[in-house]
Automatic annotation (TrEMBL):
Organism: Delitschia confertaspora ATCC 74209
Domain Histidine kinase: 309-436
Subcellular location: Mitochondrion matrix
Annotated TM spans: none
Predominant location category: mitochondrion
Protein name: Protein-serine/threonine kinase
Any GO MF annotation of the entry: pyruvate dehydrogenase (acetyl-transferring) kinase activity
Lineage: Eukaryota, Fungi, Dikarya, Ascomycota, Pezizomycotina
Uppermost EC category: transferase
Amino acid sequence: MSWKASEKLMETIKHYSNFPATGVSLRQMVQFGEKPSTGTLFRASQFLSEELPIRLAHRVQELQELPDGLNEMPSIGRVRDWYAQSFEELVTLPRPKLSSEVKERLLRPARRHGHKEANLLSKATQNPSVIKGQYKSEPEHNGNGNGNGNGKRGTTLTRRYFTAADDGLDWPPELSMYNTQFAETLEKIKRRHDSVVTTVAQGILEWKRKRQRMQIDHNIQAFLDRFYMSRIGIRMLIGQHIALTDQKSRSDPNYVGIICTKTNVRELAQEAIENARFVCEDHYGLFDAPKIQLVCNPGISFMYVPGHLSHMLFETLKNSLRAVVERHGPEKEEFPVTKVIVAEGKEDITIKISDEGGGIPRSAIPLVWTYMYTTVDQTPSLDPDFNKSDFKAPMAGFGYGLPISRLYARYFGGDLKLISMEGYGTDVYLHLNRLSSSSEPLQ
Ligand SMILES: Nc1ncnc2c1ncn2[C@@H]1O[C@H](COP(=O)(O)OP(=O)(O)OP(=O)(O)O)[C@@H](O)[C@H]1O
Ligand SMILES: [Mg+2]
């Protein structure tokens, strides 16, 4: 089953990679509405059928141009082919022929909430976690046709995330057929890319071995940040679209796709604590893992993707538990308690995780953010099929926990910081931006 990109496909990809990606904010995704009509979904499919190929094309180009022979590593080649194949599937999916009447209806503003702004989404704002100029595509520049040659200004509205087309009338069956097909294509693509993180990591290992590199340099680190950040964005858009398409089967009023408008921090934190303690007991053969105390007003909730928050909490808690156990020895009867404190502000919800695991030497602080930096002696084997979707690996050992969690935090305008007191313990601050208007960081 070997798929190979044709020369023509690679040319098309190159062409697409000249267009800037369009950033979407959490709030915009929610404004789309939880029960989109066939017409709305169709418009969203149309948006994604342009946006996703652009984002995929950027990654193919970047993988191909990686420096220092990294682009020639077999695992990097595999990942590049997945991106190219998914690109091809999206651009070759046949679109229905629409009558001019239907086309017009699709463009017509919805009159959902009784005012005409219903279809004009609130503007995405600058992501506070992105340094100006860090990424090529920024919200202000979107949609003005950078690089598409027509140089027209003021066409910002041509490739908006979507506009809701919902006039209450029936839509021709071709539209819902296309919607179904499109969602099926997305599901296939999502599955294909499940093990991208592990496979890229594998590629880095191949390169380290071949080139006798001990550590990854600034360039590779920056590439991995961009690459994994872009993957979070692509999967967010895909996951959201799939969930909205089969919304009929779901009825939780607090959910819009995979976004929960009332994500309860306390409940999620409690669950992450239990999971991390369980993994810890399992790993060290403990009867009772070190205790974790949660200080959180039960009413704190905000708009977020619960899966992202669970991931960040689980990763940081695992780190704390490991530090505590290794500092005090698994035979210890009673461990110092790790504290999780949740604060609710107007701008941010901040979660502090304080442990007494001995901290990190100051010289090693920059390293904890580099991929593959770990103080575990034996990195568990990197089986690409192992735990498909993410690095929810046992206890520790890949050196991906912190850097990936920070990307998740930054993706929606938050951040992850770490302050250590060597000889005592570590405080991790997870800032979650609750304004939800900031654009995705785009590359
Ligand atoms: N709370 C903490 N206390 C002390 N050291 C820590 C703490 N959190 C992280 N570290 C150090 O930072 C390193 C990197 O952490 P990170 O979570 O990125 O990777 P890991 O835990 O080694 O592996 P994994 O990818 O499985 O999480 C750890 O190996 C550990 O040395
Ligand atoms: Mg970890």
